[in-house]
Amino acid sequence: MTTTAHIALYDTLADWEIGHLLVELRTGRFTGTPWNIVTVAELAEPITTMGGLRVVPDLVLDQLAPGASDLLVLAGAEHWDAGEGKVWTDAARRFLDAGVPVAAICGATAGLARAGLLDDRAHTSAAVEYLTAQPGYQGKDRYVDARAVVGGDLVTAGPDSPVQFTRATLSRLGLASNETLQAYEDVFHRADASAFPVLMQAH
């Protein structure tokens, strides 16, 4: 059975933050396990990403059930810094309560912080100061100064770490060995061509 990742869609979605992850999940080119990618929005109307792409959702949020998913991905967007996004953090809570992984990057971590979803999990973001500025956040003691962090079923990263975000998510999903994941980061973050043969032998 094909596994499915649900990608949250909203206007000004930060395309680049989840681009690496979507490619690796959909193609399975270095994992040998292609995933089904399903986009989800609050309404059926198209959204426009920060990069100007117009995307029509496959599903509306009311139809999304954690039991029919294997991953929820939350990218950054302008609404997070405007204090919005509660419908998505409510969805993230449902996923985490059901034991289904959630991967959040950039501004999405601020939304999770406001919802209290970072208080009891190891996590990271753009900077600890970014999260401490969020009303209700009480997770400073669980903050990790790293590019990406896996805290149980939750993966978090800052906006400058799309490759590490991908690596951490693939690791949490058990899709690749540590050797393959290190080679992936070496190639796509450090431009180390000597690591490419390891990727080509990954599966």
UniProtKB/TrEMBL annotation:
Entry superkingdom: Bacteria
Q: Can you supply one Gene Ontology CC term for this chain's record? A: cytoplasm
One of this protein's Pfam families, by short name? DJ-1_PfpI
Protein name, entry field: DJ-1/PfpI family protein
DJ-1/PfpI domain: from which residue to which, for each copy?
6-170
Xref: Gene3D superfamilies? 3.40.50.880
The protein's matches in InterPro entries, at most eight in alphabetical order, are given as: Class_I_gatase-like, DJ-1/PfpI, Prot/Nucl_acid_deglycase
